[in-house]
Amino acid sequence: MSVQLSFYVHIPYCVKRCGYCDFNTYTPSQLLEGATLETVSGDYIDAMLREVEIARISAPGSVPTIFFGGGTPSLLPAHDLGRVITAIKSGWEVDGDCEITLEANPDSVDATKLAQFREAGFNRVSFGMQSAVPHVLATLDRTHNPENVARAVEAARAAGFSSVSVDLIYGTPGESLADWRTSVESALSLGVDHISAYALIVEAGTKLANQIKRGELSMPDDDVMADMYLLVDQLANDAGLSWYELSNWSKPGHESRHNVAYWKNANWWGLGPGAHSHRDGVRWWNIKHPTAYKSALFAGTTVIAESETLTASQLADEAIMLQIRMREGIALSKLSADQISRIEAYSQTGHLDKERWLKGTLQLTPSGRLIADRIVRELVV
């Protein structure tokens, strides 16, 4: 039986660094003073193809999903990203219905470029919408015009993408519940197949964190954040998109199979600087800086920064933390009697689906999803 291996492909370049972002991304000038995108990325794919070859030798099997994230992958030419797809298809048995996703900034694509990405092999696109409200986008330091999202979605449909998704962020300083409703309704009006909605996490050291620390901005309170989550859940369901993971809703058959692989702790290889990988209980992550990453590959030295082998206990705890996020939930048969006794009360308080509980499954209700972390702590003590 062929072992399945998904691929995450990290493209670390952005035109501008958003104020809330702590991802491993860089503007050209951060990498080299006065540099252009072409200058810093010119040999990036060449280096990455060397890591693809390392993966081919050490991790044979079949590939069900490929996901290009970043950064802003859509900044690079379609033919360059297509070289990575071609290399993966040459080195592995790639499923006929392989899901190949491109993350894109709506401002970085047009009809021609989306058609080129489709021709290069992409069949799913995820647009970083974040919000439809200008003042919210300004606080997030997002560069795109809200109107460009609709144009991008329409162009993706015309290009033949079989699945179109948008990402939203809620809980931005200054964002009201009415603002959030505007963004969700705007996203749903586009007729997309999938929506991701993530609560804003303010990471230390970011521009946004410093603004909050100085008192220039203040976060919405927890009750408003909870109302925002319940609102997107309600509106998405009313529009025919069902939740299948804590922060994700889709039309039937349009779940992100790549992200489901993460939540099921399947095997994946992360290509690129700072990318994380997991294979059969072993996790590793690459050198973080793009220049160091490229130099190591061209010199024939390892790009792995560190690795760890997960214990049986760690794997069990991670299975709970990941599976509880999903609509399928956790089979009670997988839990100990002590674990069940610690959380049984939640089936009486409306946080766990009572009917599913009686049938032997732990499944979070909408209110239960709001306290998922608390329930997890009960299970993994």
Structure description:
The longest helix is centred in the middle third of the chain and has 17 residues, at 222-238. The radius of gyration is 21 Å and the shape is globular. The protein folds into 2 domains: 6-263, TIM Barrel; 329-380, no CATH class. By secondary structure, the chain is α/β, with parallel strands linked by helices. 42% of the residues lie in helices and 20% in strands. Strands 7-8-6-5-4-3-2-1-9 form a 9-stranded mixed beta sheet, sandwiched between helices. A 3-stranded antiparallel beta sheet has the order 10-11-12, with no helix packed on it. Strands 13-14 form a two-stranded antiparallel ribbon.
What's the arrangement of secondary structure elements?
Blueprint: E1 6-11, H1 28-31, H2 37-41, H3 44-58, E2 62-70, H4 78-91, E3 93-104, H5 111-120, E4 124-130, H6 134-140, H7 146-159, E5 163-170, H8 177-189, E6 194-199, H9 207-213, H10 222-238, E7 242-245, E8 248-250, H11 257-263, E9 268-271, E10 276-279, E11 282-286, H12 290-299, E12 304-309, H13 312-323, E13 330-331, H14 337-343, H15 354-358, E14 361-362, H16 366-370, H17 372-380
Helix pairs in contact: 3-4, 3-12, 4-5, 5-7, 8-10, 14-17
Concise synopsis of the structure shown:
The protein is of the alpha/beta class and 381 residues long.
Given this structure, which CATH class of the largest domain is correct? Alpha Beta
Strand order of the largest sheet: 7-8-6-5-4-3-2-1-9
- Count of individual helical segments: 17
| Overall body shape | globular
Strand content: 15-25%
Model regions low in confidence, pLDDT < 50 over at least 5 residues: none
